[in-house]
Amino acid sequence: MDRPACADRGAARMRRPAALLAGILLLAACSAVAVRPDPPALPRTVPISVIERDWHTDIGLRTEDLDGPLVLLRDRFPGARMLVFGFGDRQYLTDPHPALSDMLLAALPAPGALLVTGLSTAPEAAFGEAHVAELMLSDAGAQRALAYVANSFAYSTTGAQVALGDGPYPGSLFYAARIPYALTHTCNTWTAEVLAEGGAAVSAEGVLLAGQVMARTRAAQAAPP
């Protein structure tokens, strides 16, 4: 399912009021994955997309690059060229009609969820070119990034990701996350951590907002090789 961000109900449910976030910006520095950029000389051939959807960011990975446990998800989205992964608060994210009280509860540490969306086209076509930034990872960096995404899921005794139900539109599914959501570890912190783990020059330190992730990603894009 390919759908612009402005029409995406899932993205709307992932938003967090700016006033709620403003007072805790400094706390996120305690929960960051250390940046360990791969050597510049290392060939970078595996693309990873960062997608901005209002207050939220997603990670996009080509289905051909998936391996390990993520191959199971590829099989759930036949025909998809890319899978888009977004992390968030489970209760808030999966509630089709969240109330103000749900938004306030989402500020507290709580079980997390992952929204997985299959795209049959390029993310720029689905979300708009202005909302997508692409970085290139080395083979080793891509494996680390894939492992980080895979390890974010909760698994059943059979080794499958734990499905929570249909997502907000056709072509998307909710899954239980192994890691909790908190205001010191938001959807955007998680996105930056995937990039940092993959060897991109993107720091997750202090990240809470989508704009921070996109600014750091675009700075990494512009940096000399």
Work out the radius of gyration.
16 Å
The end-to-end distance, rounded to whole angstroms, is: 34 Å
Biggest sheet features: 7 strands, antiparallel
Give the integer mean of the pLDDT values: 81
Total count of domains:
1
Beta-strand content: 15-25%
Strands of the widest sheet, in order across it, are: 5-1-2-3-4-7-6
Quaternary structure state of the chains depicted? single chain
Number of helices: 9
Label the structural class.
Answer: alpha+beta
Task: Extract low-pLDDT stretches.
Answer: 3-31, 98-106
Principal-axis shape: globular
The topology string of helices and strands comes to HHEEHEHHEHEHEEHH
* Fraction of helical residues: 25-40%
In total, the number of strands is 7
Give an overview of the whole structure.
There is one protein chain. The chain is of the alpha+beta class. It has one domain. Helix content is 31%, strand content 24%. The termini are far apart. The N terminus is likely disordered.
Secondary-structure blueprint:
Blueprint (H helix, E strand, L loop, with lengths): L8 H5 L4 H5 L23 E8 L2 E7 L7 H7 L5 E8 H5 L5 H6 L4 E10 L3 H5 L4 E6 L1 H13 L11 E4 L5 E10 L5 H11 L12 H13 L3
Antiparallel strand pairs: 1-2, 1-5, 2-3, 3-4, 4-7, 6-7
What would you say about this model in short?
Helix content is 31%, strand content 24%. With 225 residues, the chain is of the alpha+beta class.
